[in-house]
Design a protein that fits this description.
With 148 residues, the protein is of the alpha+beta class. It has one domain: Alpha-D-Glucose-1,6-Bisphosphate, Chain A, domain 4, CATH 3.30.530.20. The protein has four helices and seven strands; from the N terminus they run E-H-H-E-E-E-E-E-E-H-H. The longest helix is centred in the C-terminal third of the chain and has 16 residues. The model has no long low-confidence stretch (mean pLDDT 94).
Length: 148
């Protein structure tokens, strides 16, 4: 089944070990320092990093708008892969995310794949919320955070 019309895939190689990148992605103290597009502030409400666990957080935009978020972890393979549902099934922008970490020449290739329920939901997030640019900005912020 071809899912490309429902996907957003963003990649970046960061200059850090896979173990460090994975840790920055799984510890709320670190996540709050880089997660989200430029100008956004992430605040963790609670995090239970295990299969079936939840990460509840808010992202506050530059204009002060607060966006509540919830993640339910579906798969965790330490230092290699995280898969989760993001949002509620009733929410028209809910998606499944898979983040992979592959060590390569002095860095780590991160691939974020978001699979939306429909093409329309994917298009809404891309067009209305700038998901592709926001994803690239998020990974750039992670790279900068890890190399400060």
């Amino acid at each position: 089944m071809n899912t490309s019309e429902r996907e957003v895939i963003i990649t970046r190689t960061v200059k850090a070990s896979r173990a460090l990148v994975f840790h920055a992605w799984t510890d709320p103290v670190h996540l709050e320092r880089w997660y989200g597009p430029n100008g956004f502030v992430t605040k963790t409400i609670s995090m239970d990093f295990r299969v079936g666990g939840l990460w509840k957080f808010t992202m506050t935009g530059p204009d002060g708008t607060v966006f509540p978020n919830v993640v339910v972890y579906k798969e965790i393979t330490p230092v290699e892969r995280i898969a989760h549902d993001h949002g509620e099934r009733e929410d028209n922008v809910m998606f499944e995310a898979t983040i992979t970490f592959i060590e390569n020449d002095g860095g780590t290739l991160i691939t974020m794949r978001s699979l939306f329920l429909t093409k329309e939901a994917r298009d809404l997030v891309v067009e209305k919320y700038g998901a592709i640019d926001g994803g690239h900005q998020t990974l750039a912020r992670l790279d900068a955070y890890l190399n400060q």
